[in-house]
Amino acid sequence: xxxxxxxxxxxxxxxxxxxxxxxxxxxxxxxxxxxxxxxxxxxxxxxxxxxxxxxxxxxxxxxxxxxxxxxxxxxxxxxxxxxxxxxxxxxxxxxxxxxxxxxxxxxxxxxxxxxxxxxxxxxxxxxxxxxxxxxxxxxxxxxxxxxxxxxxxxxxxxxxxxxxxxxxxxxxxxxxxxxxxxxxxxxxxxxxxxxxxxxxxxxxxxxxxxxxxxxxxxxxxxxxxxxxxxxxxxxxxxxxxxxxxxxxxxxxxxxxxxxxxxxxxxxxxxxxxxxxxxxxxxxxxxxxxxxxxxxxxxxxxxx
Amino acid sequence: xxxxxxxxxxxxxxxxxxxxxxxxxxxxxxxxxxxxxxxxxxxxxxxxxxxxxxxxxxxxxxxxxxxxxxxxxxxxxxxxxxxxxxxxxxxxxxxxxxxxxxxxxxxxxxxxxxxxxxxxxxxxxxxxxxxxxxxxxxxxxxxxxxxxxxxxxxxxxxxxxxxxxxxxxxxxxxxxxxxxxxxxxxxxxxxxxxxxxxxxxxxxxxxxxxxxxxxxxxxxxxxxxxxxx
Lengths: 303, 229
Hints:
The structure holds two protein chains of two kinds. Chain A has helices spanning 2-17, 19-56, 69-80, 93-102, 107-110, 131-141, 156-202, 205-213, 218-258, 266-298; strands at 58-63, 85-91, 123-128, 150-155. By secondary structure, chain A is of the alpha+beta class. In chain A, helix 2 (19-56) packs parallel to helix 9. Chain B is α/β, with parallel strands linked by helices. A six-stranded mixed sheet of chain B has the order 6-7-8-3-9-10, sandwiched between helices. In chain B, strand 9 and strand 10 (217-222) form a beta hairpin. The two termini of chain B are 30 Å apart.
C-alpha cells in the first residue's frame, strides 16, 4: 500500500520536475487529440448536414390550373404507390397563398398575391427515402400520361438536377471515405502520441537503470511512468477540449451562416455533446498515454 | 572453516571474441576490505557487473551467502540487489531527486515505512557529511558531494556488502581520501567492502588485501598487499 502511494507521488514528481519535457509532451498529445476530435466532428457534422440535405431534397410538381381534381388525385395516388416515395402532399391554391405570405420577404412582394388574384399554382410535394429515387419519380411524372396536368418546366428536380446529383455524390463519398479516413487518422495519431511518450521515456533511460541497480522492482519503476502517462492524457484532454471550445466559439457563427439553409446548430450540437466529447477524448488519452508509457518502459526493464 | 560471503568460482566472461574474464577464482569473507586493482580493461568493471547481476558469467559461478546469484529467479534479483550497496565512478544519482530523496529512494524501493526513512536518512547523511545539502539536486553538488550521496544511498539500507567501482575515479586526491576514509570507517563497523580502483597511492597506503587482475586473469592476491600490476 505504501508503495502504491509512493508510485503515485513519484509519477507526479517526474511530471513536475521535467516541466519543459512534460509540457511539450502534453501539447503534442493535446494537438493530436484536437485534430482527431475535429476530424470526427467534421465527419459527424457532414453526415448530419448531408442527412438534413437529403431530408430537404424533395420534388415539387407544379400543376396546370386547368387540371381537374380527379386527375390530380389519380396522379397523387400513383406517386404515393411509387417504390421509395415517403410522402406526397397536395398543396392547394389557398395553402400556396399562406406559404407565400409566411415567407420572409418584403410586404410589397407579399402584396403581389391576394386570395382573389392568386397566380400561384397548385402543387404536389413529394418526399423520397433516397435522393436516387428523385430521378425515377421525375421521369415517371414527366411521362406522356401525366404531361397535360403539369406545367411546362413544372418539375423541380429537372430544374435542380445538376446540383442534386452533386450533393448526392458528396454524401455518398463522405459516408464511404469518412470512416476509412477516420481509422487511418486515428492510427497516425496514436503513433504520434506513442512516439512522443517513448521519446520522453528514452530520455530517462539512465534513471531506469539506476532504479534497477538500487533494487527497485519492475512494477515500482513502471508505476510512476504509468501515472505520468495517464497524467499526460488527462491534461491533454482538458487542453484539447478547451481548444475545441475556442475554435467553435469563434467559427460557429460563420459556419452557421454558411449552412444557414440546413438550419444545423453547430454550437448547440457541441454544447450538448461537450461532455461526451470530453469523455471520449479522456478515455483515448488516458488509455493511449498509459499504454504507451508501459510499452516504452518495458524495453528498458529487460535483464 | 567459515564459508566465504562471496565466492567467485572459475568465472569467465566472453563478449564475442573478447575474453573479459578468464577463470577468475577468489573468495571474500565477511568483514574483509578488498582492493580489486588492475589497469583499465583488466576486467574489474566486468566482475562488478557480474556481482550486481547486470550480466551473467559465460562460465563459472558466483556464490553470495552460499547462493548462486545467477540462478536467482528474475523477480528475486531486486531483493538480492537490496542486500548489496554499490557506488559507481559516475555516481548514478537520479537527476530529478534531491540528495535526501536519492538516499531515501533506496529505502522506498523496499517498502520501508516513512517513519524509518525519516529516521535513517538524516543519520546517514550526517555520517557522510551532507546534512547541509539534503535539499540540493545532484547537479548543484561537487564531485565529492555527489560521490558521498551515492555512498549514503549505498549504505542506508545497511547492506552486507559494499561494492565501490572506481569511486575516486573522477575526484581530486584530497576528496578521494575523504571517500576512502568513509569506506574505511564503514568497514570497521563490520560491512564487507570491495573497492575496485587503479589508484596506486591509495592502495599502497591502505595496506589491505589486494586482488590484482590483468587481461582478465587473476595475477595477484595478497593480504596487506601492494599495487603491483
